[in-house]
Write a structure and sequence with these properties.
Elements: H1 2-13, E1 15-24, E2 30-33, E3 41-43, E4 56-62, E5 73-80, E6 85-93, E7 96-101, E8 110-112, E9 125-132, E10 141-147, H2 153-164, H3 173-180, H4 188-191, E11 195-196, E12 202-206, E13 215-221, E14 227-234, H5 245-253, E15 257-259, E16 262-264, H6 269-275, E17 283-293, E18 299-310, E19 313-316, H7 317-326, H8 332-351, E20 360-366, E21 372-379, H9 382-403, E22 406-407, E23 410-411, E24 416-418, H10 424-435, H11 446-459, H12 466-475, E25 481-483, H13 507-520, H14 530-560, E26 567-576, E27 579-584, E28 590-594, H15 595-598, E29 604-607, E30 612-615, E31 621-623, E32 627-636, E33 641-646, E34 653-654, E35 657-658
Parallel strand pairs: 11-18, 12-19
Antiparallel strand pairs: 1-2, 1-4, 2-3, 4-5, 6-7, 6-9, 7-8, 9-10, 12-13, 13-14, 14-17, 15-16, 17-18, 20-21, 22-23, 24-25, 26-27, 26-32, 27-28, 29-30, 30-31, 32-33, 34-35
Helix pairs in contact: 2-14, 8-9, 10-12
């Protein structure tokens, strides 16, 4: 007995249990990605246990072995499911129903009890929910949530993208019943807790197609010559209470998902478009940051608290931009004043170390069926920057306020929005590349790096290398995330920053509102799970962004299908060992030119430091940022992939080398 026990003990000492995220490749092989571990853990398909692609798992790994060899493991437990909602098809065979998951990642078929088919029949496309996978069950069990009634292939693709990213479509009945009980009625009891701003000029500025207006600005002159400017945010936390089904669902989603032809909202429409939307000529509950500001953009006083407002007008960005340019129109004096103050705030931000990355938004012009019929490139103009500066001001003020409050000499757990300094490994090759164009980078300290970036971004305007240096510069930057560990926001140049201004579409803003009220009431209840919640919100944000990218790519392919065989001017937007990507100048649609298709002309090698492919014989170089003529040769909607080919200048040769004949 003792011998057996010792053998068991010896075996357990040779294994270790690690926690990580399971990634399953198209080939079916699995890899568990463990934080702070250089190499992934290899997991063969028969060792997945009960895990799906994307799940957080515990993997048992054999210790020892060669240092260069990848560890191999067996999944013993699922700590957290990444995805519980799936899209696929129903298969019924001899009264036994199965659900076959659609998508590229290998997943087992799900067993569905016949009383959980929800009306689905053999062959139906459905949305199904994972229910359980008990220890002795050969297959996981699911239930049908809804039968997909897609209008067309594009509609189905958009729904699939949302579900594959782990976001449910629609809201369950029990939650909707809870929402129906909510009332937007303004009560005397609630009024007594709030500051009344209804008699002060207030308006919203939003995109022309917006339905949820979650921020408004009020403005009035004070007797001392200063201005009182209020940033008023929809008081979502008044309606979304902790512990409710609504709150649990909002936390689970953590963000709205914006696709080219739809929004998959974090909150049901009654909340986002009715109760909380700051619509004109309606009294609304808000959470506000109110500033007393001089005409030199000096902030003399700040007040934060719950309010009630009455929006006098709903402006679009285009209307405000026209007012700024023409200096006339409804409420033109306050708009021009706000614009002047915003410009002063912006100038000071950049002087203090913020980085001035400009952003252009590409949007699809859609017909009534959602099919793309054109591309619109939207630049950030003064109207957008006006709103941006006042939202930044409010977010910063709230974070600064909370950072000063201590409980037992400890900082309050709070979901800061942080942005780390650039990674040296990315920054040094970028600085060397920029030097080739004559731009110097000072890498001595963080402030000098920011200053160098701003000088480059200013000097590069309108030059051929502008696009490539802006894109590569952005890639050197860390990703902004939510965390309770405040290290500041490098890109904005702020020591303290959070998200407070968009609670209709972001859950961290709801958490910020709740903590703010606790601080105001002097009744703070430190939340031990704040870091866990913050990480969840960061993960959900990343999933939403991936879904948005996938949907944009689908629409690009859908749009470019009509141009098969046509030629366009493009700019090389990325380079890899297997080829390079080109973005068309007219449509901003990106496609791949494979290195295989270049082999007829020369053998090309990847120069990583120069972001280029170089021909061994001809010395022909394809470098990121170069202008190039392309032909559209394939548009694959299933893979969301565009394939281009290079149109050779003159048609026949490059660098004096004749085009090889294809065999």
């Amino acid at each position: 007995m003792t011998q057996k026990k010792n053998a068991k003990s010896k075996k357990s000492s040779q294994t270790q249990l690690l926690k990580g995220r399971l990634e399953i490749s198209r080939s079916g092989m699995g890899f568990v990605i463990v934080e702070d571990q250089e190499k992934d853990v290899l997991v063969k398909p028969n060792n997945f246990g009960k895990a799906f692609h994307g799940d957080l798992v515990r993997v048992q790994v054999e210790k020892g072995g060669a240092a260069s060899k990848r560890s191999e493991g067996i999944i013993v437990d699922v700590a957290e499911r990444k995805q519980t909602i799936f899209i696929g098809s129903i298969i019924i065979n001899k009264n036994i129903a199965f659900f076959e998951v659609a998508g590229e990642k290998p997943l087992p078929d799900f067993y569905i009890p016949t009383d959980k088919l929800n009306g689905a029949v053999d062959g139906d496309r459905v949305v199904a929910k994972f229910v359980k996978w008990d220890k002795d069950d050969r297959k996981p069990q699911a239930e049908v949530i809804s039968i997909i009634s897609a209008k067309d292939e594009s509609d189905l693709a958009m729904k699939s993208i949302i579900i594959d990213a782990g976001f449910p479509i629609g809201f369950e009945e029990a939650l909707m019943k809870e929402v129906e009980q909510l009332s937007g009625k303004i009560t005397r009891e609630e009024m007594a807790k709030r500051k009344d701003f209804r008699d002060i000029l207030t308006f919203t500025i939003d995109p022309v197609d917006a339905k949820d207006f979650d921020d408004a600005i009020s403005i009035r002159n004070l007797d001392n010559g200063n201005y009182e400017i209020g940033v008023h945010i929809a008081d979502v936390s008044h309606f979304v209470k902790p512990g409710t089904l609504l709150d649990k669902e909002a936390y689970s989603r953590a963000t709205s998902v914006y696709l080219p032809d739809r929004v998959n909202p974090m909150l049901p429409e009654k909340i986002s478009n009715e109760l909380c939307s700051l619509r004109p000529n309606e009294d609304k509950y808000t959470f506000s940051v109110v500033f007393q500001i001089t005409n030199r953009a000096e902030i003399k006083h700040k007040w934060i608290g719950r309010t009630i407002i009455h929006s006098n007008h709903r402006f679009t960005y285009e209307e405000v931009q026209q007012t700024i340019e023409t200096k006339e129109g409804l409420h033109f004096k306050p708009i021009l004043l706000l614009n002047d103050l915003a410009k002063q705030f912006r100038k000071k931000r950049f002087e203090d170390g913020a980085i001035n990355f400009s952003s252009t938004e590409v949007r699809f012009q859609l017909d009534e069926t959602g099919k793309p019929i054109g591309i619109i490139v939207k630049e950030s103009k003064d109207a957008h920057k006006l709103i941006e500066e006042f939202m930044l001001l409010a977010n910063r003020a709230v974070a600064e306020y909370v950072s000063k409050i201590k409980i037992n000499k400890e900082a309050i757990p709070f979901p800061y929005r942080i942005h780390d300094t650039p990674d040296d490994e990315k920054l040094k090759p970028f600085a060397a590349f920029a030097r080739k164009f004559g731009y110097k980078f000072d890498l001595h300290n963080e402030k000098e790096v920011a200053s160098s970036f701003n000088n480059l971004l200013s000097e590069v305007q309108g030059k051929p290398e502008q696009h490539v240096l802006e894109q590569l510069g952005i890639r050197t930057m860390a990703k902004a995330v939510y965390t309770a560990e405040n290290i500041g926001h490098y890109g904005l140049g702020f020591e303290h920053y959070c998200h407070f201004t968009s609670p209709i579409r972001r859950y961290p803003d709801v958490m910020v509102h709740r903590i703010m009220q606790e601080c105001i009431d002097k009744n703070v209840k430190p939340e031990k799970k704040m870091e866990q919640w913050s990480k969840h919100c960061s993960d959900r944000e990343r999933s939403a962004m991936e879904a948005e990218r996938a949907a944009n790519k689908y629409k690009q392919v859908e749009f470019m299908k009509q141009f098969l065989g046509d030629e366009f001017d493009g700019v090389i937007s990325g380079v890899a060992a297997f080829g390079f990507w080109v973005e068309t100048v007219d449509h901003k649609c990106e496609g791949l030119i494979s290195i295989r298709d270049l082999s007829d002309y020369d053998d090309f090698r990847h120069d990583d430091a120069d972001y280029s492919l170089v021909g061994i014989n001809t010395k022909k170089k394809f470098r990121m940022g170069d202008k190039i003529r392309i032909r559209v040769v394939a548009a694959n909607l299933d893979k969301r992939q565009l394939d281009y080919e290079w149109v050779i200048p003159g048609g026949e040769s490059i660098g004096g080398v004749k085009k090889k004949k294809k065999k």
